[in-house]
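[Structure tokenization] protein backbone as discrete codes

[Encoding] learned vocabulary of local backbone shapes

[Begin record] amino acids and matching fold tokens:

___
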Amino acid sequence: MGVTEKREYRIEELARLAGITVRTLRFYRERKLIPPPRREGRIAWYDDHHLARLRTIAALLERGHTLNGIAELADAFDHGRDVGDLLGLGEPTEETPVRLTPEELAARFEGEVTPENLAAAMELGYLGTDGDELVHISHRLLEVSSALVRAGIPLGEVLRAGARVREHADALAELFADLILRHAPEPELHRLRPLARSVVEAELSLALDRRMRKGSQ
């Protein structure tokens, strides 16, 4: 079999590889927890995408998710933004995207990966889909979000704060772009972006100092 040839399985083989019964697999299919198989006459053919989804379902069940919750997550996952739309192919970026399985995402945000939070993260453009994987647009934002949730802040509130930060960040980007483009050609915008980032980081650091001093008074 060629390296690029897609593996396909009959229902009995797929169930055995996933460690479940054929009856359970049929139940998952009826609940639309997995995509429909490819039909060839009366034979249903499944592939590695189905196997990956079944292993994710098993992992989410072990973490306490209900089948109803998993069905809603699967629906949000299946209707999420494609990673190409998320990243903007060919655009320069200083952020490093991170690939995650749904299981890995659930592990990072224990108990907080709800359909609502998943949809909100996709709406914000934090998450996109690529086959059976999720892609987070920024390793730094993923790590910060995880740390905030571990500190006890609900993920929903972290995402709502992220939306507000996005509005301010867009305004700051417009401010710097307008400033630079009034006095320099467009290629300078990319070269000078580290200066803009440094100003924002310094001003935020000073603002936090002022906020903490105000709180201690």
Remarks:
- Strands lie at 8-9, 38-40, 43-47, 98-100, 127-130, 133-136.
- The first strand starts at residue 8 and ends at 9.
